[in-house]
Design brief:
Radius of gyration: 32 Å
Helix content: over 70%
Shape: elongated
Structural class: mainly alpha
Number of helices: 3
Mean pLDDT: 82
């Protein structure tokens, strides 16, 4: 009966055939999945906007920090210049920054080497071909 509400929607599933029950469950499940997808899209859009705004603010902070370090470097160079000459003070400041760069590079290299790999993901990916071929016992 087109246009007539299904009996299951009113709490009386006894009046429905198995096919009608299956169709109603399928329809409800489809609606639920669509609603969950829409919710996920809305949440992702909101999250992406906030993350983008945060990234922009962090970029601005990084630029401002860079300028602060630049002007601090010039101030140190100028102050040392009055004591040992501008040429020598520039060399001293450059050597100090070279030391900072070397220390940071060594620490960064050490951290990268210490970073764990994706062992569980690699293991899972290795098992996919056997699972697709129906040979799950080879994965154990």
């Amino acid at each position: 009966m087109p246009g007539a509400p299904a009996a299951g929607r009113h709490g009386d599933p006894e009046g429905l055939s198995l096919g009608e029950l299956f169709a109603e469950v399928s329809r409800d499940l489809s609606t639920l999945v669509r609603q969950e997808i829409e919710l996920a899209k809305a949440e992702a859009a909101t999250s992406a906007k906030r993350a983008g705004k945060g990234a922009g603010l962090l970029g601005g902070a990084g630029y401002a920090g860079h300028l602060a370090v630049l002007f601090l470097t010039v101030a140190i160079w100028w102050a040392l210049g009055s004591l040992i000459g501008l040429g020598w003070s520039a060399l001293v400041v450059a050597i100090l920054w070279g030391i900072v760069a070397a220390v940071l590079a060594a620490r960064g290299r050490k951290e990268i080497k210490a970073a764990p790999g994706m062992e569980q993901t690699s293991e899972s990916l290795k098992k996919i071909p056997n699972a697709l071929q129906g040979n799950e016992e080879k994965n154990r």
